[in-house]
């Protein structure tokens, strides 16, 4: 009788849940998840409940034969000026193995000043912790805006919302005018994006050589022509077992450069198990995106990853810079498919060709639903 009563009560709650109205009400506050936390809520709204969080309470234990993997490798870039060919070759071999097995690696001695990394994290925190009136003026779902502040880009499409707010801006190939970026984070966003572009060019050289190609091969394919910067803010969550900071997904870019703080929560999925990506002081996290997996014909892999809801008492911040080709003002008409030097009769193409705008449109329409968008292009 008790079980029957519980089932009836659950059904009653479910039937009274008007998801569309609650999504609209949340969106119209224009203060995001930060606004909910500021209001002092102790229970998260139903729109944030994830059906897949059941695994968080009872995660699959990593089998003994995989324990040696521990976590993603860390690679020393030697300040981007290697002392000799041996050290450069060692770094390339490390990147090759990491890109093929993990799709993720961390880099140290990457040439971006540690001071700038701290300033960038502070800039993100300062923006999101402004008074709500200042944030409301910038809140939008108009993707034509040069600078965009919102919560959950796929709010109305995803099965569940994530406990995260974001602001973002395309930084290349057409940098925004300074006045397009809020003053509170303007200077550091512009400077950090310049440094990431320089680092990105160096990384694409090493990745090209890791594939056995000319060091300019990926650059000549316009893989680093565009840069999109997303500044994420993950407020403390009162019920972290019911939601995610970012749900399971793979990146649709060629390459992602991620700056994360010490709070952690990023996990990468390999062979069906979730591995933590720890904070390494001064490091940047690099991960292969879908488009790089596509053009390398699976030599490099774009693994799914997620961010757990924040259990700390302070907000987590991260900055993800996505290398892609510009898809808004002047879409790149170039078709991308497996690189001809990497395919053969024994290793035929595994994907259909696509243009980046079409792939981006598909990804945005699909949202973060836990499935790989690359399946859409599989031959």
Descriptive notes:
There is one protein chain. The protein is of the alpha+beta class and 379 residues long. It has a single domain, classed as Sandwich (Jelly Rolls). The protein is built from eleven helices and 14 strands. It has helices spanning 2-15, 19-29, 32-38, 54-57, 85-101, 114-128, 132-136, 186-210, 217-220, 290-295, 356-366, and strands spanning 74-76, 104-108, 147-150, 165-172, 226-234, 244-249, 255-260, 266-270, 273-276, 284-288, 305-308, 316-324, 335-336, 354-355. The strands form three sheets. Strands 1-2-10-7-12-5-4-3 form an eight-stranded mixed beta sheet. A four-stranded antiparallel beta sheet has the order 6-11-8-9, with no helix packed on it. Strands 13-14 form a two-stranded antiparallel ribbon. The radius of gyration is 21 Å and the shape is globular.
């Amino acid at each position: 009788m008790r079980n029957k009563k519980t089932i009836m009560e659950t059904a009653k709650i479910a039937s009274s849940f008007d998801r569309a109205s609650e999504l609209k009400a949340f969106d119209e506050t224009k203060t995001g998840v930060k606004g909910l936390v500021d209001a002092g809520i102790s229970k998260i709204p139903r729109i944030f409940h994830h059906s897949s969080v059941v695994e968080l309470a009872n995660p699959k234990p990593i089998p003994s034969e995989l324990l040696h993997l521990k976590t993603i490798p860390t690679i020393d870039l030697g300040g981007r000026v290697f002392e000799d060919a041996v050290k450069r070759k060692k770094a390339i071999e490390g990147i090759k193995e990491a890109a093929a097995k993990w799709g993720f690696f961390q880099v140290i001695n990457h040439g971006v000043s540690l001071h700038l990394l701290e300033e960038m994290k502070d800039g993100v925190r300062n923006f999101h912790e402004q008074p709500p009136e200042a944030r409301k003026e910038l809140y939008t779902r108009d993707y034509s805006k040069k600078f965009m502040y919102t919560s959950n880009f796929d709010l109305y499409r995803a099965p569940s919302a994530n406990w995260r707010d974001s602001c973002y801006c395309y930084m290349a190939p057409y940098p925004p005018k300074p006045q397009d970026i809020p003053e509170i984070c303007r200077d550091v966003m512009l400077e950090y994006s310049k440094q990431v572009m320089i680092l990105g060019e160096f990384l694409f050289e090493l990745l090209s050589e890791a594939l056995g190609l000319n060091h300019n091969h990926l650059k000549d394919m316009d893989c680093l022509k565009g840069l999109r910067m997303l500044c994420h803010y993950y407020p403390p969550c009162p019920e972290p077992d019911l939601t995610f900071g970012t749900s399971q997904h793979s990146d649709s870019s060629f390459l992602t450069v991620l700056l994360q703080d010490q709070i952690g929560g990023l996990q990468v999925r390999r062979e069906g198990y979730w591995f933590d990506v720890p904070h390494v002081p001064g490091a940047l996290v690099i991960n292969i995106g879908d488009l790089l997996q596509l053009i390398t014909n699976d030599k490099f892999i774009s693994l799914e990853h997620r961010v757990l809801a924040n259990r700390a008492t302070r907000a987590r911040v991260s900055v993800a810079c996505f290398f892609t080709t510009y898809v808004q003002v002047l879409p790149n008409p170039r078709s991308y498919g497996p690189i001809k030097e990497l395919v053969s009769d024994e290793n035929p193409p595994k994907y259909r060709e696509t243009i980046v705008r079409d792939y981006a449109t598909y990804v945005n329409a699909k949202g973060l639903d836990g499935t790989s968008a690359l399946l859409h292009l599989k031959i």
